[in-house]
Amino acid sequence: MGRVTVPAEGDPLEGERVPVAAGGLREAVVAMLSSHWRDGGYTVPHSSVYPWQWLWDSCFHALLWAELGDEDRAVAELANLLAGQDELGFVPHMTYHGDPGAGAAFWGRTGSSSITQPPLYGHAVAELVRRRITVPEVVVDRAASGLGFLLAHRARTVDGLITVAHPWETGCDDSPRWDGWCPGGYEPARFRQVKGELLATVERAESGAPLANPAFAVASAGFNALVAWNALELATVVDDERLVAAATELAEALDRRWDPDRVTWTDDGPHASGRVRTADALLVGLVAPRPEAFTALADPRGLGGAYGPAGTDRREPTHDPDAYWRGPVWPQLTYLLQRAALAAGDPVAATLAEGLRAGATTSGLAEYWNPDTGAAGGAVPQSWAGLALLV
Ligand code: GLC
Fold first, then answer.
1. 56 pocket-lining for ligand 1 (C-beta < 6 Å)
2. What pTM did the predictor assign?
């Protein structure tokens, strides 16, 4: 396995493709996931572009193994992910199984990265339990402690929202919402350098856990929504009133960020780019549903597309339907938005499900795809495209 010193980002890739015959989505997902499973007990997002364990990807993979009836792999995926947690509850966003030195020069630590990602383990644990899979107590406890770290130790804005310590923590690496931090305007190579530099200003606990970043003091609406929702999901499994109270308070603070003119929730931070209309911002619908936000997901003038919601609204000057995090459909976001619509009883749930299945099929299970044509972008095949089986 080649040594990678920095986290990979989705460069367009020609290579192994899992053909998806009509009606053969499930078979294609089984073939892909089986080839992406590693003996260490986890699934890689892609065999060469993303050859390690990533936090939120693994939570989605656990859901997929559960759907495919492989309980052992579903549980192992989560157990291995959470085994890297520190004493404060911090869960690293990348784990370099089998080659602990691989990212050391970049992160300044061995074995894993030094920042986190959306805590989807709350939903994954709850979903496994709903499917009557036995989740070991240690996994449940670690999931609670991971959420506890974000809720109790992370720096907050004056309005009570949780800040991220780095753009990568949101999972939405090159979102136009971060453009305010890219001097001279967004350009991929320049922003990559900025992301490298932003690691230096992260303030850490003694354990190394990232607590704040004064140079990137931003409370992403999407990230906060996922913290609150995962806490509520986990609370369906553990009896923890404080978790529910903290999540509810966060959801209320988040909903105060609703901008009726732009039909989006906005980030709390120093730059106007935090108001760009993106699909991930509408994840707040998981905890504070609004019919207008669901309608926006299918509006063809804005986010709506035949293959799912565009990542960035078409009316934004930054919209590019084929560029990494600038406008393509992301399957993991579409899955989550579909869950939000389903829970709220909004009919857009059916449109989102249809778009996700069409995009996963047409793109050959790509990392992301064009909202109008379904043309593949990034790594192909990418494990999380399998989420199309779950809607
Ligand atoms: C990209 C994505 C990130 C994901 C990773 C592995 O960096 O932006 O969200 O976790 O790839 O799939």
1. yes
2. 0.95
